[in-house]
Each structure stands twice: as structure tokens, then as C-alpha cells.
Design a protein that fits this description.
With 1059 residues, this protein is mainly beta. The protein has 7 domains: 88 residues, no CATH class; 105 residues, no CATH class; 200 residues, Sandwich (Immunoglobulin-like), CATH 2.60.40; 28 residues, no CATH class; 130 residues, Immunoglobulins (Immunoglobulin-like, Sandwich), CATH 2.60.40.10; 161 residues, Immunoglobulins (Immunoglobulin-like), CATH 2.60.40.10; 94 residues, Immunoglobulin-like (Sandwich), CATH 2.60.40.10. The chain is built from 10 helices and 51 strands. α6 packs antiparallel against α7. It is extended. 25% of the residues are buried. It holds the Pfam family Ig_NPH4_3rd. This is Nephrocystin 4.
């Protein structure tokens, strides 16, 4: 049969290749098609100009016959539509109100998209040669649809006008919507996008796509709204292109005033941190108490503070910084350490790092702090600071007080603040004039690390960031937090490395919606009122990190390492000799004898000590035997002595080094010594040491620990009421019993584990597993000696809450959790309250594996309980509030501090004496300048002991004032002296009055006179001076006319247009 075949060949593909491709794709994928030997296919290639107008209807590299039903072509009466193809008539269609909704909002969708891309690149940068930050240029949809944001719903993008389409009425026709973004990344060595970057590459990538077939079903959609779900990820799509998946960040979330966007945390090299302030819920009627436990847990949405970005100071700031003369970080030979750039990718070879035989001396140098102007505080805030952080499994560190020094000869500019050099403060309050900055060191070598721990320590450096809290050492208020990446402390077999970090110090502030003073709903506030979270930059911290390799240990370190190794053995004699040797080594090295006879004196001292110990033991044994003969009633019975000896003979001891939440797996070899079968009952004296009876769990831990012993299905059987699981043993049979130790109890007083402070079994805990035969007698005993070790903290949270009230919080798990589709996972916390100023600290462990082998994240959560005070006031007007401060058992010198001195004044303002058990009344003068619900803090501090006496949480409900007049003024953009205007004010009183002028934007508006006096009924001209702006826009400035008591008489609103 002769038929017409249409093959649409791309210009880039040869015809021979196309035929071969069709042959391979057709023949090789069909088992029913067989090759006929001796047969051939004769093809004639001819041009068919009639197909030129309909080529867009045929797919590429596909055989098409004229007998097929090709969408868009009219059926031919001859049966071959390709001979003389005719297209169907097109009908006009209009798409109205085309909108795209991104969840939870457009801004957060794009922000999370960039975070995911950059986090993915950051996580994989160790295996790549280059890394650059990405930025979004614009968003578009295929066919070049242009969208603009609607005014009522900012999270929805709408088409500016209707879209006219001409379509053919065919069931196989589909309309494809494709959401694309234009990304930009710098080229070459640039790693940060800036306004001056010239070498940048932009590329288009698809994020979502959707398909709509309007003619497959009866056309009942006319005039109705059609909703399509855009798809993404590794799914087949019409364009055959890779579509980026952002399913985690684009999931539809529950409607809430504030969404909780997920951020890449644990899987990236920068661990995020977050500070949560308490919720802005107004109390209605009775306050919540500890007995009120029946409330339903409500999610408090919050925004975690993003990982602080690395900033770059100007050359003048760097010159001022390093002119202070900070000590250099040098290696063991005195050479300056190699400098690493935190903005460039760091190649990392794990094998090379593990094979490095040098020890690590990790150095943290806190150099300077750059102040950033903030509303409510002065330009010299803070004056003194201190740091708190925790590195690896070392105990938490609280640094000494540090003074911020500013050069008197250096000119400071508000646009470019210079860093303030840090100087330590002595105990007497004087500033140390020696070396500037603060240097802290941590030694991590073989004497500190346990066997096999080096790999985990290197992984900690490569993938974690160290969280640092910055505090005001005068007021004991939290300034903010930051985090530095630890991967730049990996030496890669170099003698020493260093890196200079300049990171932002961030905090969060919750602000609720403001209400007008004349609002009828004033005083009735909903507990779920909309709230906004602001991320505030409080300053920039300059810190230098370094790692110095140490080839040799001192003799004392070497000997102590040997002693530490001996102490790990379970032999009593070995432990005894090691303890004696350790005490003698300390004495010898403290006295520093000559090196020539040190070894001889050491061995002689050991023999002398052993001889004295043996003589003492023999003397004690003789006295005990003599006492037994003198008084037989007090001697132990022979049966008890034999039982004790037999118990020790069948006891096997194991030593474990366990950390919080991590499961330690072991197998005990149980042997039946009898010639008859036995059913052995396994009993553990503590639930933290248990038997693994689940076969899947057993198989999981064997694979995790790479244990080659055999695994047996259904080996244990349990009975209700039995003391433990039972196992059947044949005569003389041995089997492996899987045991697991896992503890969720943390000892906060764990001692520092370094080589110079070795304590023999100082915190050891003992657990026993008894294997009893059928007669109830023990067949074997497994004694596990557990040495608790400190754990690593991945993230720190600080929460503030009113005292004696239950804290209810919901923390959304970040993207590393990989939750189920459409189901974001939250961790709910409910913490009982405590009196002010008590601080509760606890840990939360997050597991991502089914059998909870090791926590993926350990969160350290601090809950600060404060005394709550509700204040309702109006912007620009002073309100007074009384507080009661109660004395303690001792006399104290107390001073009160506020978090916003520009808005809160405390009387008395200076230091006062608080007698024991006395009551001191404090007067708060609150004058806020920002409307809405806010949180401010007041601390009462013992200035001698630098301890917190009491803390108050001021819950401000600030209303907008009633405006008297409104004005509008235009100010030119750019340089110049600004613009001057005048406003006339008339004294409404019959007597002379003095008035004060205030503004909520003192940086944009200045008065000719801040204070004026005017007679009764007279008028006064207020002189206004508006500062210039460098960018166009508009702002509303409120002008308050207050009396001497700071009560507002009138309020003017001036709208300033910068053009």
C-alpha cells in the first residue's frame, strides 16, 4: 500500500540521524515487531509545499500518517489529510481576570526560592569550583504576559488587560501556562550582587506549569471562574524541560496574619537562629495562671531571624579597625596564618582533613562592634557589651565585660559609622589598656577527642555555624544575635588559617495593628489580631576566627593522654595504676624537676606508691579478719560471700560515652552453659538500657553500626506481666542479644573534659541487664558504665513571656525535615511559668529517622519570665505607670534600665539603695512615637554584682492621635539645603501658655524653636525645616503640640512628597 508520510525534521538534525532515531525508538520498544530477513523498505523523499502552512501542528521526529486524526486539520473525504491539508477555522476567545496566586505570598515565595537555591549551592559548594549568590530579576509567563500586583490582595498577580486568543474547537487542543523567573548571577570572581556589578549573567528558568483543555468537556465554563493548580518538580511536562521544585516553600498554608516561612537551616553550611518574642495577646478579664491548662494550643506564627549576611565595610572603616593593633594569629613557627575569604567558596577534602595528624587550637578574636542608629536609643548605645555562646561540646561561655572605644580624632559619619574597638573591663571597672579585643581559645586534639570522634568534629566545623548572643552588660538586655560559619576553620593540612567575619547583629520585633483613638472598638482586642514581625539590624560584629595546627604535645599532655587511655580499660588494677601515675605526674610537672632524672624519679615514685598501697591493703585486710574473729555476728555469711563472688564472675562490664538523645548500640553474647535448653528472661534495672526486640529496628542499628553478626527473625517473645522479654537457647548455644542505651536526661553541671582535669568515673552511671534462667537464678550479667558527654547545640531560641503563665508556642520545622506533601510540621511547646526574673533552659531534640538513632537537631531554648505590665497610650503623649520593686534578703544598689530610653524614662533614673524586704515605687514615663501593639522591657540590675533583680515586660497598646489639620508639601530630591515651611498655631486658652513641639521623624523634620510661649488667644508661626532625600517617595510626618506635662494639645499631619 502506498501512503504519505510526514516527517518534521529540525534544522539542526540530519535526516539520516532522524530516520535512525525513529527506527531505534519504534523497533527497540516493541517486542511484537520483528525484523524480516531479506526485506527492505523503499522510501522516496519529496518536498510537499502544501505542508508549509501547517508545520506548527506536527511534533518533531514523529511519523505521521494522513489517516490519523491530527488536531487542527479538517478531515479529508479521501482519507489523507496531508495531501491537501486544510486548517480548521479559528474562533475568538477572551481570557479575563487572569490571576496567579503564590502561597503564602509573592514576597515570601520569592524570598524562600532564593534561600533554597542559595542554600542548595552553599551545601554543595564543597564539591564545586565556584559559587555565587543568585538574585531575581523579574517574573513572566509564557507568551510574554505582563502582570501587576493588585491593590486589595497583594499576594495575587493579575493580568493588566484581557487576553485575546484565536483557538480551534478541538478536543485535543490545550492551553499551557508556564511560570518562569529570570535569575541573575555574577560572572567570574564576583560572589555578591551589587548595583555596580557589570559582569552578570541572566537566564530564564521554569518554576511551574499548568495545562487546560477547554474543549474536552461540554463548554459549560463560559463566564465562570476556572482554577488551575500549577505543577512543578521532576514530572513530565509539555515542553520537556526541567522544572525547579519549590514544593516546600510554595505549599498552601493555613491563613494567619503572619506566616512562618521555612528556611534552609541544618542542611546548609549556615545554621539559622531565631529569637521569639512573646505573643501580643491582650488579656481579657482574669489573667492566665498556672492552673489554667484547658486552653487549646494555638500556633503563634513567627518569623525566624535569617542567617546574618556577611557585610563589607569601607576601606576607611577597615583602616580604622586595624590601626588598633590587634594580635596576629600565627602558627607554631611564628608565621602569620593563611587568610581565607568568607565570601569565596572553600574546597573541602574530608579525607585530607581526617588524615591530618596535627592537633587544633581554635581561636576566636572579638575585635569590634559597629553601632547602627535605631529609634528609641541614643547614638552611644550600647556602651558596654558581653557575649554568650557555646562551641562544640565545650561548656557555654559568658565573656567578660567589654568597652566600646571610639576614637576622639576620627570624624564619625551617620551614613558610614566606624567600628568601635572592644577593650576588656577589669574587675575594678577600669578599661584594660593592653591588647585590644577579646581572644578565646579552644584546644581540640587527641587528648580531648574520644576514639572515632574526630570525624564528627570535622563535620561539625564543615556544616555548622556558631550562634552568638550579644548583651548590654549595663542593662543586661539582649541586643541581638548573630552566627558565624565555622567551615573557615578547616585547615586542610595547613599550619594555620584565619578568616575575618563581619556579620549583622539581628533581633526581631513584633508590632500589632494600630487603632485610632476614636475607634469604637477601642479597649476590645482580639487575641488573634494581625501582627507584623520586623527584623531589626542592631549593629555589626567584627570577629576573626583561626585554627592553629599543633604537631607536638608537651610531655605532660602526652603522659596524660596515655593515662586517659589506661583509664578507659575495665581492669581494676590498670585503673588503679593509672590513677597513681596521674597524681604523680601532676606533682612532678608542677615542681618542674630536671629532665635528666625525671623518668627515674617518676618510676621510683610509682613503685613507692604501689608498695605503700599494697601495705595499706594488707593491713586493712588483717584488721578486718581480726574483727571478724572477735565478733562473728558482724561478719558476712559464707553464702553471701560466695554469691557475691559468683555474681562478679558472670558479670561483663562495658564502658559507653553517651550524649543527649543519641542511641548507643551494643550486642551481648549470651551463652547457655547447661546441657539442657533454657528459656532466659532478660531484665534491665533502668528503661534507658533496653533490649531491641523489633527485628526492623535491630536490622537498622546493625546497618548503621556496620555490625557483621547474624540477625535472627522473631527471636524474642514477650508475655504480659513478665519482667522482660524471653529468649530460647539450645544446650551450649550462644547468641547475640541487641541492647540499646538512650537517655533524654541532661546534666547541666557537666564538668569540662580537658586533659588537665581528668576525673576517674566522676559522673559515671551504672546499669545492669540480668539474664535469668528458668529457675530464676542469674545466668549472666551485663553491667554498662555510662560516661555522659556534652552534646552539640544546633540552634538557640530565646523566648520572653509573662511570669506564672503557661507559655504556648509552635515552631515550624525547617526544610531539612522534608515533611509530607501539603502538611507542614510544627513542634508545639507548653512550658509552665515561673516568677520573674527566672530563666528556664531546656533542650528539644528533633529526630528524622524512624528509630530515633540520633537527633538531627538539638535546640536550646531559654524562656525568660518577666512581670507583665499593660499600658494603653497615644503616640506623642506621655503616660505614667507605677511599678513596685521589692527588696531581697540583702541590701542592694540598684539601677533601672529600659530597652528604649528615648520612649521610656524611669524615676529614679540613677543608682539607689534597695534595703532588704523593702518596697520601692518606680515611676515610668512612657512616650511612644509608633502606633500599634509593641513590647518594651525594663530591667532592675544590681550594679555591684551585675545581676538581674527584676524584669518587667511592658505590653504597649499605642493608638493614633486625632488629627487637627493636614498639610502637604513637596521637597526636591537630591542635594541642597532642604525646604522651609510655616504653620500657624492659635492658643485656645485665655491665659498665656508654654508649648513644646515634637515630631515622630526628627531626622526628616526640624523646628526653628522646640519651645515657645504664647498669650491667650494669640497666634504663633511654627517654623519647619524639611531635610532632603536621596530617593523619591512620600512620607507622613506627625507634628505634636504638647504642653509642659507632655500632654498633646493638637496634632498636625504633614505629607511630604519627595520628587
Amino acid at each position: 500500500k502506498t501512503f504519505c508520510v510526514c516527517i518534521l525534521i529540525p534544522r539542526s538534525c540530519p535526516f539520516k540521524y532522524t530516520i535512525y532515531y525513529i527506527y531505534i525508538s519504534v523497533i527497540s520498544n516493541h517486542n511484537m515487531l520483528k525484523i524480516i530477513e531479506g526485506a527492505h523498505l523503499a522510501c522516496v523523499l519529496k518536498k510537499h509545499p502544501a505542508l508549509d502552512s501547517v508545520l506548527h501542528l506536527f511534533p518533531e521526529n514523529v511519523l505521521v500518517s494522513g489517516e490519523e486524526n491530527i488536531p487542527g486539520l479538517v478531515a479529508s473525504p479521501t482519507g489523507d489529510v496531508l495531501l491537501k491539508p486544510q486548517t480548521l477555522k479559528t474562533l475568538p476567545f477572551t481570557l479575563n481576570r487572569l490571576t496567579i496566586s503564590l502561597q503564602p505570598s509573592l514576597e515570601k515565595f520569592e524570598s524562600q526560592l532564593l534561600q533554597l537555591i542559595n542554600a542548595d549551592l552553599t551545601f554543595s559548594h564543597c564539591f564545586a569550583n565556584s559559587f555565587a549568590s543568585f538574585a531575581l530579576y523579574c517574573m513572566c509567563v509564557s507568551l510574554c504576559f505582563f502582570f501587576s500586583s493588585t491593590s486589595s490582595l497583594p499576594q495575587i498577580l493579575g493580568l493588566r488587560s484581557s487576553l485575546e486568543l484565536r483557538l480551534t474547537n478541538h478536543q485535543a487542543l490545550a492551553i499551557i501556562f508556564q511560570l518562569e523567573y529570570v535569575f541573575s548571577t555574577p560572572i567570574g570572581r564576583e560572589t555578591m550582587l551589587s548595583a555596580t556589578s557589570t559582569s552578570r549573567a541572566a537566564f530564564l528558568h521554569s518554576l511551574r506549569w499548568g495545562i487546560w483543555c477547554p474543549f474536552q468537556e461540554p463548554a459549560e465554563w463560559k463566564g465562570e471562574e476556572i482554577q488551575l493548580v500549577l505543577q512543578g518538580g521532576a514530572k513530565p511536562n509539555p515542553h520537556g524541560a526541567m522544572v525547579y521544585s519549590t514544593e516546600v516553600s510554595a505549599k498552601a498554608q493555613s491563613p494567619a496574619p503572619i506566616s512562618a516561612p521555612s528556611t534552609a537551616q541544618a542542611c546548609s553550611a549556615v545554621s539559622n537562629f531565631a529569637h521569639l518574642e512573646m505573643d501580643l495577646q491582650q488579656r481579657g478579664g482574669d489573667s492566665a495562671s498556672l492552673h489554667d491548662e484547658g486552653d487549646q494550643l494555638q500556633e503563634l506564627p513567627f518569623t525566624p531571624v535569617h542567617a546574618p549576611s556577611v557585610v563589607f565595610s569601607s576601606r576607611s572603616s577597615l583602616a580604622h579597625l586595624f590601626s588598633a593593633g590587634f594580635p596576629d594569629i600565627v602558627d607554631s613557627s611564628g608565621q602569620v596564618a593563611d587568610v581565607l575569604d568568607p565570601t569565596e567558596p572553600l574546597p573541602f577534602d574530608p579525607n585530607r582533613e581526617e588524615n591530618d595528624l596535627q592537633g587544633n587550637l581554635l581561636v576566636f578574636q572579638f575585635l569590634a562592634f559597629t553601632r547602627i542608629a535605631a529609634p528609641g536609643v541614643g547614638p552611644d548605645w550600647p556602651e558596654n557589651i558581653y557575649f554568650t555562646f557555646q562551641f562544640y561540646r565545650f561548656p557555654p561561655v559568658t565573656s567578660q565585660r567589654l568597652k566600646l572605644l571610639t576614637g576622639d580624632k576620627v570624624q564619625h559619619k551617620a551614613s558610614n559609622p566606624l567600628p568601635c574597638v572592644l577593650a576588656s573591663i577589669n574587675k575594678d571597672g577600669t578599661v584594660n589598656t593592653g591588647s585590644p579585643g577579646l581572644q578565646l581559645q579552644f584546644r581540640v586534639d587527641d587528648s580531648f577527642l574520644k576514639p572515632g570522634e574526630k570525624r564528627w568534629f570535622l563535620r561539625y566545623l564543615a556544616l555548622h555555624a556558631m550562634h552568638i548572643d550579644i548583651w548590654d552588660s549595663d542593662s543586661l538586655l539582649l541586643i541581638g544575635s548573630t552566627a558565624i560559619e565555622l567551615k573557615y576553620m578547616l585547615r586542610q593540612c595547613k599550619s594555620a588559617v584565619q578568616a575575618l567575619h563581619e556579620v549583622e547583629v539581628l533581633t526581631t520585633d513584633y508590632v500589632g495593628e494600630d487603632t485610632l483613638l476614636t475607634n469604637p472598638d477601642l479597649g476590645r482586642h482580639s487575641a488573634s489580631s494581625p501582627m507584623t514581625v520586623h527584623t531589626i539590624v542592631r549593629g555589626r560584629l567584627h570577629i576573626r576566627t583561626g585554627n592553629i595546627g599543633k604537631y607536638r604535645k608537651t610531655q605532660l599532655q602526652l603522659y596524660c593522654s596515655i593515662v586517659t587511655f589506661l583509664l578507659w580499660h575495665n581492669n581494676t588494677n590498670v585503673v588503679k595504676k593509672a590513677t597513681i601515675l596521674l597524681s604523680i605526674l601532676n606533682k612532678l610537672f608542677l615542681n618542674k624537676p630536671d629532665d635528666s632524672d625525671r623518668k627515674l624519679k617518676c618510676m621510683a615514685a610509682v613503685r613507692e606508691r604501689e608498695a605503700s598501697e599494697d601495705a595499706k591493703t594488707a593491713k586493712v585486710a588483717a584488721q578486718s579478719k581480726k574483727a571478724q574473729l572477735a565478733n562473728p555476728s558482724e561478719a558476712k555469711s559464707k553464702a553471701e560471700s560466695i554469691a557475691n563472688m559468683l555474681s562478679q564472675a558472670i558479670t561483663t562490664q562495658h564502658l559507653l560515652y553517651a550524649s543527649l538523645g543519641s542511641a548507643e548500640y551494643m550486642e551481648f553474647v549470651l551463652k547457655n552453659p547447661f546441657n539442657v535448653p533454657q528459656t532466659v528472661t532478660i531484665h534491665s534495672d533502668d528503661p534507658e538500657l533496653s533490649v531491641i526486640t523489633n527485628t526492623e529496628e535491630w536490622r537498622y542499628f546493625k546497618a548503621l553500626t556496620r555490625t557483621p553478626t547474624p540477625l535472627e527473625e522473631n527471636m524474642f517473645h514477650s508475655e504480659q506481666g513478665a519482667p522482660g522479654p524471653r529468649v530460647y537457647l539450645r544446650p551450649k548455644e550462644s547468641l547475640h542479644v541487641p541492647l540499646k542505651y538512650q537517655s533524654f536526661l541532661c546534666d547541666h553541671t557537666m564538668a569540662l573534659q580537658v586533659w588537665c582535669r581528668i576525673k576517674v568515673h566522676s559522673h559515671s552511671m551504672f546499669y545492669k541487664v540480668t539474664f535469668k534462667a528458668e529457675d530464676g537464678k542469674p545466668m549472666a550479667i551485663c553491667q554498662v558504665n555510662v560516661e555522659p558527654t556534652p552534646h552539640v547545640v544546633d540552634q538557640t531560641f530565646r523566648l520572653y513571656h509573662p511570669e506564672l503563665c503557661f507559655l504556648k508556642k509552635a515552631i515550624r520545622l525547617p526544610v531539612w525535615h522534608d515533611p509530607a506533601p501539603g502538611e507542614p510540621q510544627d513542634v508545639y511547646l507548653k512550658v509552665p511559668g515561673s516568677p520573674s526574673p527566672h530563666i528556664k533552659m531546656f533542650f528539644v531534640m528533633v529526630f528524622t529517622d524512624k528509630w530515633m538513632a540520633a537527633p538531627s537537631q538539638i535546640w536550646q531554648i531559654y524562656v525568660h519570665f518577666l512581670e507583665r505590665v499593660d499600658v494603653s497610650c497615644v503616640t506623642g503623649q506621655r503616660s505614667c505607670q507605677s511599678l513596685v520593686l521589692r527588696g531581697t534578703q540583702a541590701i542592694r544598689k540598684v539601677k533601672c534600665f529600659s530597652s528604649h530610653p528615648g520612649e521610656i524614662e524611669v524615676d529614679p533614673a540613677g543608682v539607689f539603695v534597695l534595703p532588704p524586704a523593702a518596697v520601692q515605687e518606680l515611676q515610668l514615663k512612657v512616650q511612644p512615637w509608633q502606633a500599634g501593639s509593641r513590647f518594651l522591657y525594663v530591667n532592675a540590675v544590681d550594679v555591684e554584682q551585675q545581676r538581674l533583680v527584676t524584669a518587667w515586660l511592658l505590653c504597649l497598646n499605642v493608638h493614633r492621635p486625632v488629627l487637627s489639620k493636614a498639610f502637604e508639601v513637596c521637597v526636591p530630591v537630591g542635594g541642597g539645603r532642604g525646604s522651609s515651611r510655616k504653620i500657624t498655631y492659635t492658643n485656645p486658652y485665655t491665659s498665656s501658655r508654654t508649648f513644646l513641639l515634637r515630631s515622630d521623624h526628627p531626622d526628616l523634620l526640624q523646628f526653628k524653636e522646640d519651645k515657645f510661649q504664647i498669650g491667650g488667644g494669640e497666634s504663633y508661626t511654627i517654623g519647619l525645616r524639611f531635610a532632603t532625600s536621596q530617593s523619591p517617595g512620600s512620607v507622613d510626618i506627625l507634628v505634636y503640640v504638647n504642653n509642659l506635662e507632655e500632654k498633646t494639645e493638637e496634632t498636625f499631619c504633614v505629607k511630604v512628597n519627595y520628587s
